[in-house]
Amino acid sequence: MDHRALSLVFVALLATPLFAAIDLPASWAVVGGEFTYSVRKGDSLSSLSARFGVPEKVLARDNALTAPYRLKAGMGLKVYNAHLVPTHLDEGILINIPQRMLFLFRDGKVAGAYPVALGRRDWKTPAGSFYVAQRETKKTWIVPPSIQEEMRRSGKPVLTRVLPGPDNPLGEHWIALSIPGYGIHGTNAPSSIYRMRTHGCIRLHPDDARALYEQVSAGTPVEIVYAPVMLFALPGGPILVEFNPDVYNRGVEPVRMLRDLARRHALEADIDWTRAAALARAQDGLAREAGRTPGTEAVDSGRTVAGRGPRSEAVYDMQQLAGARGACAADGAR
Q1: Given a cut of 80, is residue 44 above it in pLDDT?
Q2: Tens of pLDDT, residues 181-196
Q3: Does residue 162 lie within any of the structural domains?
Q4: Over residues 9-34, mean pLDDT
Q5: C-beta separation of 103 from 85 below 8 A
Q6: Model pTM greater than 0.70?
Q7: What domain range includes position 175?
Q8: What is the rounded CA–CA span in Å between residue 61 and residue 104?
Q9: Rounded Cα gap, residues 257 and 121, in angstroms
Q10: What is the pLDDT of residue 157?
């Protein structure tokens, strides 16, 4: 990578699941990067994928692992989890559905970024502008009738309420949204994070739910967007793209979307379109270099990148997604 024209901020992420805060007066940014994680007893590729917000297949490839994946305690695992931030908030929570990421903004800066689990295809998380309605710890789960019916159809015991404790799918921290029935919360199934596994709610690792809970209050804005394609450019510097799967089958044409973005920002001639097409096919949900300039291998090898650029942009849709049902707290489904 050519560093002569770059004004990047490098973020150290040493064996921590949380993304470091980026102290930038930026409207868009890149978070995450490369670090080495020391495997602990009980870790699996699935649990680490959920914790760090990186696909299992990428973890396996970057560490030359073959199935069946067996991790040994103490082994060093290379992790690369750079993500683009799709848009900017002065204050509040930003959630990008296809990306399966939540970003916290404070004073116009990215103060945290967390992998999340979101609504599956038959029970979508709604996009739109909301706010935090209330917060509650150790909430009793009142099982919505629609989820009781799902339990009945699947042959499971039909529950009407679940008291706080290890069996409660809401975890210990509940952040209710202004759209009835939906919220952001912890979980008793942390390996489900970074997947489309919920009945519409936004599910966080318990540690992340606690961290977010302590930094928000009633009235905090919440923006939920649908941004599968993102573009980031620094003047004279790298061009980064991020392709995420079209999780709700909305007819996304990723290369076409990227071309539209590049054309609007006079970047079309600066992108290696063969490389961009390959990244679009992979859809690994990570920030990758796609420019024609030398050094495109730098981000792929996991070099930490963080920065901002006046030409950063994402394709996203703020429209309410069809088929959303206000029964989120079904997050016990694993």
Answers
A1: yes
A2: 899 999 989 999 999 9
A3: yes
A4: 44
A5: yes
A6: yes
A7: 117-222
A8: 30
A9: 22
A10: 85
| Range 289-294 average pLDDT | 80
On the 0-12 / 13-18 / 19+ scale of CB atoms within 10 A, 3 is exposed
Domain-located, residue 6:
no
Amino acid 76 reads G
Q: Copy the structure tokens of residue 201.
A: 């709610």
Exposed e or buried b per residue across 86-119, where buried means at least 16 C-beta atoms within 10 angstroms of its C-beta: bbbbeebbbbbbbbbbbbbbbeebbbbbbbbbbb
Strands (E), the chain: 30-31, 34-38, 76-80, 83-84, 92-96, 101-106, 109-115, 118-119, 128-137, 141-142, 161-162, 173-177, 183-185, 196-198, 202-203, 221-225, 229-233, 239-243, 288-289, 313-315
Residue 139 belongs to a domain: yes
pLDDT in tens, 100-114: 999 999 999 899 999
- Binned at pLDDT 50, 70 and 90, residue 313 comes out as low
> By the 8 A CB rule, do 204 and 212 touch?
yes
The total of structural domains in the chain comes to: 1
What is the CATH number for 196?
Answer: 2.40.440.10
Rounded Cα distance between 45 and 50, Å, is 9
User: Is 33 among the domain residues?
Assistant: no
Backbone angles phi, psi at 35, to 5 degrees: -155, 170
Over range 82-104, report the average pLDDT: 95
**Residue 86 region, left (φ>0) first, then alpha (ψ -120 to 50), else beta?**
alpha
- Residue 281, classed as helix, strand or coil, is helix
Q: How confident is the model at residue 314, as a pLDDT?
A: 53
* Spatial CB neighbours of 149, under 8 Å, sequence gap ≥ 6: none
Tens digits of residue pLDDT in 155-187:
888 777 888 888 888 999 999 999 998 999 999
CB 59 within 8 A of CB 37: no
pLDDT exceeds 90 at position 16:
no
Indicate the DSSP class of residue 183: E
